[in-house]
Specification:
Layout: H1 2-6, H2 17-27, H3 37-49, H4 53-66, H5 74-87, H6 91-108, H7 111-128, H8 131-144, H9 150-165, H10 178-190, H11 198-201, H12 207-210, H13 216-221, H14 226-242, H15 246-262, H16 266-283, H17 291-301, H18 305-317, H19 327-340, H20 344-360, H21 368-382, H22 388-402, H23 410-420, H24 424-441, H25 444-461, H26 466-484, H27 487-498
Helix pairs in contact: 3-4, 4-5, 5-6, 5-7, 6-7, 6-8, 7-8, 7-9, 8-9, 9-10, 14-15, 15-16, 15-17, 16-17, 17-18, 18-19, 19-20, 19-21, 20-21, 21-22, 21-23, 22-23, 23-24, 23-25, 24-25, 25-26, 26-27
Length: 501
């Protein structure tokens, strides 16, 4: 399985690419042409090991042309060509070859072997950026799947993605079924890929389960273990970049940037984000994961909201099935950004559009805490309570019991809602709980905002003695803003300080 995804064995090329090509064209007309298969495959090995997937595909095609039709090596060589084509981003051609290879492997070997191959091929295709194309491969693979093993689990997860994207009533909202949970459990137990697609594995009920996962993205975004995940994630990003796997590298660098900003390392986060964006530009296709650090940097700096709003508006309105999963998260970010930009009607419309996600999506849905807390933050900024009842119910029934993490915290969100609706004593206790959690996670920017928000609550209430409550909190927040470099929040804190008597 690893060889199919990571490439062939590295070794010295038996001849230059030009020599191989000359030999290939001459040998087509000669007896014993199959003797050219070995050199062509070795050349493909070398090219693939260095990330030269176009060259590897050329050599694999040469090998297949030289190979007798009944040669038993043909199905697997064809299968390898399909995966290499996916890494060249020729997704439609890759699917055609992969499907042919799947049928050939099933006939030459077993249906189980075909299922395993198609599982690897679908995974490689999705990792390279061909998410929708991976679904077609998965549907074929499930026709060969037997035992509920790793291959079945991967194929099942891809097929659920397709079914959710194609749901005409609630596109993108995940289905929480026993089958989906079993597939995720099998994949977590297999420890296949430290940066594999997190939604495949993150189907569980609590943060404690996420903290035991070997998937670094699950460990961080569901488990809150940002500092623990960072070194391994950086290593994966560098390795993928060195192998020419641009989509994988861009996704890894975007996650590095996200965890860095959550931990308050803003300069490092900017550099990692720049690297992810540059890789996406080389790839020639958007990398959705990039929006996470962009949003989090905007929140940490209180700057750049216009760009974030534009991106989220595009995502929330997109009918691209590959982006259906992101609609709820995009609406949360859109509401948040619109509120910061002073556009209440647009912010509240986004919150209204999230209500089906609040009601139907399971707590483990990717970015679910972010969408709910984004809606809460929009209401807090605007000092509005529209849809506050459904938002609060979602916080209490889903977000807080699961306690999944991100650049948000359910306790802070509930503190804001309580403060917004006049339950100041309860808000005070939730602010205290939020501080404890954010200190535990090392979430420095959000920890600073927590102090600012409690101070803001007292200033808004304006009761006798509230300035005395607000002043030390505001002073603590301002000190943190300055230490971290949260420029926009420094201005906010100074403006709020000027309102104190």
């Amino acid at each position: 399985m690893a060889e199919a995804l990571e490439g062939g064995v590295s070794g010295p090329t038996p001849a230059s690419a030009a020599e191989i090509a000359v030999h290939y064209h001459r040998s087509l007309a000669l007896p014993g042409v199959e003797r050219g298969v070995g050199p062509a495959v070795e050349a493909a090995d070398q090219a693939q090991a260095t990330g030269a997937y176009d060259e590897a595909a050329t050599f694999l095609r040469m090998a297949l042309d030289l190979l007798p039709l009944e040669d038993p090596r043909r199905p697997r060589l064809l299968g390898r060509l399909g995966i290499v084509l996916a890494w060249t981003l020729a997704f439609d051609g890759a699917v055609e070859v992969i499907e042919q290879a799947g049928e050939a492997i099933a006939e030459a070997e077993t249906k189980q072997a075909a299922s395993e191959y198609l599982s690897d091929a679908a995974y490689a295709c999705a990792s390279a950026g061909g998410i929708v194309q991976s679904w077609a491969i998965a549907r074929q693979g499930l026709t060969f799947a037997g035992a509920r093993d790793v291959a079945w689990a991967r194929l099942t997860c891809f097929d659920y993605q397709r079914r959710e994207a194609e749901d005409t009533e609630y596109p993108g909202i995940p289905f929480d079924t026993a089958e989906r949970r079993e597939a995720a459990r099998i994949l977590r137990a297999a420890h296949l890929d430290p940066i594999g697609p997190a939604p495949m594995e993150a189907v569980f009920d609590s943060r404690s389960e996420a903290a035991e996962c070997s998937n670094l993205i699950v460990l961080a975004l569901w488990g809150g273990q940002y500092a623990r995940a960072l070194p391994g994630l950086e290593a994966e990003a560098r390795e993928a970049e060195g192998l020419g796997r641009l989509a994988r590298a861009a996704r890894a660098w975007a996650n590095v940037a996200l965890y860095e900003v959550i931990l308050g390392h803003l300069d490092e986060s900017r550099r990692s984000l720049t690297r992810a964006v540059a890789l996406g530009e080389r790839l020639g296709t958007p990398i959705p994961t990039v929006i996470y650090p962009q949003q989090s940097l905007a929140l940490a700096l209180d700057e750049g909201w216009e760009q974030v709003y534009t991106t989220f508006s595009f995502l929330s309105a997109s009918d691209n099935p590959a982006l259906a999963w992101a609609r709820g998260f995009a609406l949360g970010g859109q509401a948040q950004a619109a509120a910061y930009l002073g556009r209440p009607d647009e912010a509240l419309d986004a919150v209204r559009s999230m209500v089906p996600w609040f009601n139907r999506a399971p707590a483990w849905t990717i970015s679910f805490p972010m969408m709910v807390c984004g809606a809460t933050e929009a209401l807090w900024i605007l000092e509005r309570s529209d849809y506050g009842d459904v938002v609060e119910r979602t916080l209490r029934e889903k977000v807080l019991p699961a306690d999944f993490r991100g650049m948000v915290d359910g306790r802070l969100a509930l503190a804001r809602l309580c403060g917004l609706t006049g339950r100041h004593d309860e808000a005070q206790s939730w602010f205290a709980e939020a501080r404890r959690t954010l200190d535990e996670d090392g979430s420095q920017p959000l920890r600073a905002v927590c102090d600012y928000d409690e101070a803001l609550m007292y200033v808004r209430r304006g009761a006798v003695g509230d300035d005395d409550y607000a002043r030390p909190l505001l002073k603590a927040a301002l000190r943190q803003f300055e230490d971290i470099g949260m420029t926009g929040w420094i201005r906010r804190a100074e403006q709020l300080e000027a309102q104190l008597g």
